[in-house]
Amino acid sequence: MLTKLSLKNQIDDLIEGFRDYHRRQGTVRLADLRRNYDMLVLKVLSLLQDSDPALARDIVKSRTAIWNILEDSRKFTEANLMAGATP
After folding, report:
1. What's the domain count of the chain?
2. For all residues of the chain together, what is the average pLDDT?
3. How many CB atoms lie within 10 A of CB 48?
4. Domain that holds residue 16
5. Is 85 contained in some domain?
6. Residue 27 included in any domain
7. Is 84 left (phi over 0), alpha (psi -120 to 50) or beta?
8. Does 87 score more than 60 pLDDT?
9. CA distance 82 to 16
10. What's the rounded mean pLDDT across residues 65-83?
11. Considering the domain boundaries, does residue 1 fall inside one?
């Protein structure tokens, strides 16, 4: 349970970082967001690899597509991530 809560908080922090980046607020850099994204994906994959290998494979396959949504202002906004809504 604590692991799930920790992951949720890390995901929320990452999404908030992208909101700041797309709003041009603060000093957040895309390279830092990429590093945080990659580390978070690796953490999720390490947790899933034994318990749900199919989901882990799907995440690996979707990794670039997810990143492309996060880094593109238009796609990020269209996915309702800018306002804090979840698609």
Report:
1. 1
2. 92
3. 17
4. 8-78
5. no
6. yes
7. left
8. no
9. 9
10. 93
11. no
31, part of any domain: yes
Tokens 């995440």: give the residue.
59
The answer to whether 77 and 22 are in contact (CB under 8 A) is: yes
Decide if pLDDT at 82 tops 90. no
- Which long-range contacts does 51-55 make (Cβ < 8 Å, 24+ apart)? none
- How many Cβ atoms are within 10 Å of 17's Cβ, its own excluded? 19
Choice between 1 and 45, residue whose per-residue pLDDT is larger: 45
Taking a C-beta distance cutoff of 8 angstroms, is the pair 64, 72 a contact?
no
Report whether 33 contacts 21 (CB < 8 A). Answer: yes
List all residues 6 or more positions away from 82 whose beta carbon is below 8 Å from its beta carbon: 19, 22, 76
Q: Is the pLDDT of residue 84 over 70?
A: no
Residue with tokens 């994959």: 45
* Global confidence as pTM: 0.87
